[in-house]
Amino acid sequence: MSVLNKSLMALGLASALVAAAPSIASDADHKAEWSKINILFVPWSQSSNAFFEAVVNGAKDAAAQQGVNIDVQFGEEDANKQKTILETGLANKVSGIAVNIANDDAYVKLACDAMKAGTPIVTFNIDDSRHGAPGSTCRMAFMGQNFVAAGYVLGKRMIAEGKLKKGDVVFTPVEAPEATYAVQRHEGVQKALAEIGATSEVLGTGNDHAKALDLMTQYLIGHPKTAAVVGLGQTPTSQAVQAIKDAKLKIPAGGFDISKEILDNIKTGDLIAAVDQQPYSQGFYAVTQLALYLKYGLYPSEMDTGGAGLVDKTNFQFAQKWAGPVR
Fold it and tell me: How far is CA 70 from the centre of its chain?
């Protein structure tokens, strides 16, 4: 049973089925037709990146619900590999594509040529930073968070609870510093810090937790006057508390994304808060909206998953229950 179906079992299933009977009957009449729809789903990151468990779960659940096929292929944080995956998919005449855009300029021509030729494309999790403007990567809609806005909210929270002040330097580690998500999250956090005259320093950590912990610890040992740590991704956020302890410092920490380790640190009060971008929704609605477009011509809609919401000690319990497969 899929993650989505498990979470829906307690709802009024019988009445929902009655209400949806005409739609279900209609889909049943076209089951063979829908089964010919093939969606290529391409996360840009490494297949070992635990963050994408929920993204892929959402995508697979949506494909099963819509009765379409999905092919998940990871770009492994290699623009050339991701481009090859996309080119191969187009050559094989996939019905539609859902993709991360971690590099603004890597796929502009490819995506725009594909869209002109009739292949629908949506983006999820990370969008071209120009968000569909002329000259940007062509796509129909984006399902993901406004990273700048979320970063600003987190920065303001860290200032208030971490008692940050003018002249402070905040450590902002991130897996891939040049990726769109990293640049935009840092922009939002730094916007808040600039308002009080504080600054920040970025360090690339990669996705490997042990390596990230070592890099972050060494940075903090070498910069003992660091005022706070704000992880700009799941990996550095999950390692922030331990890095601070290993460096024998007592400074506040917060960050982006959700995992069991991050939520445990929020529960103990060692992390002030974490931004929740709701990755399951990103995968689920990217595939759902492509399927609805390919079936019925319903145009995909922009979706700001997670908004600017923060998970903290007041509300972590629900997220903790579903950390990993959904959150």
Answer: 19
Distance from C-alpha of 226 to C-alpha of 162, rounded to nearest angstrom = 12
Give the CA angle between residues 49, 245, 274 to the nearest 5°: 50
> What integer best gives the mean pLDDT of the chain?
91
Strand segments, DSSP code E, in 240-283 are 253-256, 274-275
Cα–Cα distance, 306 to 207 (Å, whole number): 22
Give the end of a domain, one of 259, 275, 291: 275
Based on the fold, state whether residues 123 and 196 are members of the same structural domain.
no
Residues 204 and 166 reside in one and the same domain: yes
Residue 215's φ and ψ, nearest 5 degrees, are -65, -45
Q: Check if the beta carbon of residue 140 is closer than 8 Å to that of residue 122.
A: yes
Model's pTM, two decimal places? 0.84
Same domain, 189 and 269: yes
**pLDDT digit string (tens) for 93-148?**
999 999 999 899 999 999 999 999 999 999 999 999 999 999 999 999 999 999 99
Claim to verify: residue 219 and residue 263 sit in the same structural domain: yes
Percent share of the chain, pLDDT over 90: 83
Is 76 found in the same domain as 120? yes
DSSP 11-60: S-HHHHHHHTHHHHHHHHHTHHHHTT-EEEEE-SS-TT-TTHHHHHHHHH
CB-based burial of residue 112 (10 Å sphere; 0-12 exposed, 13-18 middle, 19+ buried)? middle
User: Which amino acid is located at 97 in the chain?
Assistant: I
3-state secondary structure of 306: coil
Q: What is the CATH number of the domain that holds 19?
A: 3.40.50.2300
Domain check: are 13 and 139 in the same one?
yes
- Whether 248 is in a domain gets the answer yes
